[in-house]
Every structure is written in C-alpha cells, then in structure tokens.
Amino acid sequence: MSRDRRGPDDASTQEPARDALPAVDTRLLVREEGVRGYLREFGRKLRSGELGSLPVVVAVIVIWTVFGSLNSTFLSAQNLSDLSQQIVGTGMIAVGIVFVLLLGEIDLSVGSVSGLCAALFAVLNVLNGVNEWLALLIAIAGGAAVGLVQGFFFAKVGVPAFVVTLAGNLAWNGLMLQILGSSGTVNIPSESVVSKLYSTIFHSPVAAYLAAAVGVGLLLAASLLDAGRRKAAGVPFRPLGEIVLRTVVIAAIAFTAAYILNLYQGLPLALLIFLILLVILDFVLRRTTYGRQVFAVGGNIEGARRAGISVPFVRMSVFSIAGTMAAVGGVFLAGQIQSASQTSGGGNLLMNVIAAAVIGGTSLFGGRGSVWSALLGALVIGSIQSGMNIMGLSNAIQFMITGAVLLAAVVVDSLSRRSQKAAGRA
C-alpha cells in the first residue's frame, strides 16, 4: 500500500534539485564584476527603492541652481561661508533627532531642551560668575540628563515617546523661563567661550586645506583598513580601484569647499567642530556594537530582544544622546545671537531640525539613516532660507516651501519603503 508514495529518495523529487542552481545574492558578485557590477548594483538599488542620499543631493543641486540663477549673490563665497556657519546649530540638534528616528520614534522636546541648556549656561556664567568651561559642561550634562529622564519614562515605564517628549517640550520650556527669571534675556559677552566657538574663523588658507587633507586621509585609511579586514575574513570587499575613485571624488568636494571658504575669510571653527562630531558619531553608528544595536532595535525590536540586545538601554541611551546634541546645538545657537532669551529653542527650530533629519534621508519608519543626513538636510533647509532671504521673500513663503520640501521627503521615504517591500528588501 506504500508502493504509490514518493519517498525522499525518489528520482522525481531529486531531479529538480540536481538541475537547480544555488540561489546567489547578487550583492555578493558586485566586487567580482568591477565597474559593471557596481552599475548593475546601483540600478538594482534604484529599482528596489534604496535611494540613499541621492534625492537630497539632487535637491541641493536644484536649489543652488535655481537661487544662483535668480541672484548671483547666493553662490558667492561670502554667502556660502555664512551658510556653513548658520547650519551648525540646527544640524547638531538634527543629529540627535537622527538617532531617535533610527528607532522609529520622535522627540518633540529638543527645541525646548536646547533653549533650556543655553539659558543654563548663560545664567551660571554671566549672572553667577561660574567658570565658563564648567558652565558649558553643566549645560551639556543637563541636556544628557533630560534626555535620560525622558528615555526612562519611554523605555521603562512604557509611555509613548510622542507623549513623553510633548510633555517635555512644555515642561523644559517652563523651566527655562523660570531659570531666566524676570529679565527674560541674558546677553552673552562676545569674548565668552560660547561666542568664540561660533564666531572664530581660521583666516590662514592652510587651515581649510589642512582640514580637507586630514579628512580625506582618514577616509582613505579607514577604507583600506576595512577592505583588508573584509578580505582577511573572506567576505566581499571594495577593490583598490574603487577606493581610489571614491577618495578622489571626496577629495574634490573637500578641497573645493576649502577653496570657497578661503575666498571669503577662511575655515569657521563651528563648521570644523560639527564635522568632527559627525565623523565620531558616524563611527559609533557604523563601526561599533552599540551602533549595530541601534539599527537592530529600529529595524526589528522583537528580533533585537531575541538576539539578547537590551532594548531599554538602547532606547534610554538614544534619547540621552538626543538631549546631549540638543544642548550642544542650543549653545551654538546662543553663541550665534550672543544671548539666551525666552524665545530660545522656540519658533520654527523644532520643525527645522526634524525636517533636516528627514529631508537628509533618515527614515521615519526606523532602521535606516545616517548622521550625515543631519548635514545634508540642514544644508537644504539653510539653503532655502538663505535664498529666500536674499530674494526678500516673507517668512510665510519660507514656511510653506520648507513644509512642501518636508512632505516631498516623507513621500519619497514612503515610496522607497514600499518599493523595498515589493522587492523583498524591507
């Protein structure tokens, strides 16, 4: 009675297995196919919705082309140099938002936290005579503590991040007003460390070119070390030709930027500090166990738990990082206007930092993004504002266009995610 049954060794079941080819991930063949492989891989990524930083790079080119054609002042060395300084405060706060978005969450309190920490520094240093470096450290530590408190309620108590940070937005703003007192404004002297961190410029042309050379050199060294490590492990690695090509492209961008900065005054210290922080935090996200845990929790929280990752720790630490970067950004914004007031951290700051992170390419759905998104997004927001100011357009028009750009970025993110799901990549 078992004669008609097909056993596991039956020829009819084994024949397809002998004829079938093993499934190969095309991404593993890229390194062997050279330039053609990379072109195919690029096309595959576009078809599957993995756009990376391409949309925001295109947006920057379009924005600069439009405003440059309307008014030549926009692309002048002075305006671009000023722009590089003006995006620092917003960009630093946006870096913290990137970390939070990688978890698929949101932080609505970063604007108030930035204002609170700026007020804390001003009151301690200017009104109470505390050493300026100590006051600065206390202000930054205060931002980290605020983020940790909010992260505790989110990760341990289970209150949604939206609610926690919305409440924090109100509470920290009230605390800032309480700290500032009846005067409402504390002026920060131009010789203060906060003012100097923002306004200092290295006028020697050597400084900008040296910074570009060091950055390119570190990139080349990191790429070579990574390729050597991957080759030793027997996994696909970037060939030397590609590493050289990528380094040449980055070097061209870096030295062009240095040349433009030198045409006006030189390298702003604020921009240099911002870039150094981006490099450090990018290393943390891409090259450390902690960074991989952040992506894991944002991509699949249940899978992260089963892998032994402490989800509460990751969540609390990420919100603490967001608070820290909000404090740093708030201090730079205070140095920019040389004061801390009741309006610090208010206005459209929260909208701009969230928009910068999202426009820069960090997904609202978590698990995908980069700290460099903060730089690219802040550059888009800053360019729009700078161009409209030069054109003499009102704030109302600026808000509408910025909102439209933000909506477009979210639409691209949503369509990209849908395409990746259809391609089995999300």
UniProtKB/TrEMBL annotation:
<feature type="transmembrane region" description="Helical">
    <location>
        <begin position="201"/>
        <end position="222"/>
    </location>
</feature>
<feature type="transmembrane region" description="Helical">
    <location>
        <begin position="397"/>
        <end position="415"/>
    </location>
</feature>
<feature type="transmembrane region" description="Helical">
    <location>
        <begin position="110"/>
        <end position="127"/>
    </location>
</feature>
<keyword id="KW-1133">Transmembrane helix</keyword>
<feature type="transmembrane region" description="Helical">
    <location>
        <begin position="267"/>
        <end position="285"/>
    </location>
</feature>
<dbReference type="InterPro" id="IPR001851">
    <property type="entry name" value="ABC_transp_permease"/>
</dbReference>
<feature type="transmembrane region" description="Helical">
    <location>
        <begin position="313"/>
        <end position="337"/>
    </location>
</feature>
<feature type="transmembrane region" description="Helical">
    <location>
        <begin position="349"/>
        <end position="367"/>
    </location>
</feature>
<keyword id="KW-0813">Transport</keyword>
<dbReference type="GO" id="GO:0022857">
    <property type="term" value="F:transmembrane transporter activity"/>
</dbReference>
<dbReference type="Pfam" id="PF02653">
    <property type="entry name" value="BPD_transp_2"/>
</dbReference>
<keyword id="KW-0472">Membrane</keyword>
<feature type="transmembrane region" description="Helical">
    <location>
        <begin position="133"/>
        <end position="154"/>
    </location>
</feature>
<feature type="transmembrane region" description="Helical">
    <location>
        <begin position="54"/>
        <end position="77"/>
    </location>
</feature>
<feature type="transmembrane region" description="Helical">
    <location>
        <begin position="161"/>
        <end position="181"/>
    </location>
</feature>
<dbReference type="GO" id="GO:0005886">
    <property type="term" value="C:plasma membrane"/>
</dbReference>
<protein>
    <recommendedName>
        <fullName>Xylose transport system permease protein XylH</fullName>
    </recommendedName>
</protein>
<keyword id="KW-0762">Sugar transport</keyword>
<comment type="function">
    <text>Part of the binding-protein-dependent transport system for D-xylose. Probably responsible for the translocation of the substrate across the membrane.</text>
</comment>
<keyword id="KW-0812">Transmembrane</keyword>
<feature type="transmembrane region" description="Helical">
    <location>
        <begin position="243"/>
        <end position="261"/>
    </location>
</feature>
<keyword id="KW-1003">Cell membrane</keyword>
<feature type="transmembrane region" description="Helical">
    <location>
        <begin position="83"/>
        <end position="103"/>
    </location>
</feature>
<keyword id="KW-0997">Cell inner membrane</keyword>
<feature type="transmembrane region" description="Helical">
    <location>
        <begin position="374"/>
        <end position="391"/>
    </location>
</feature>
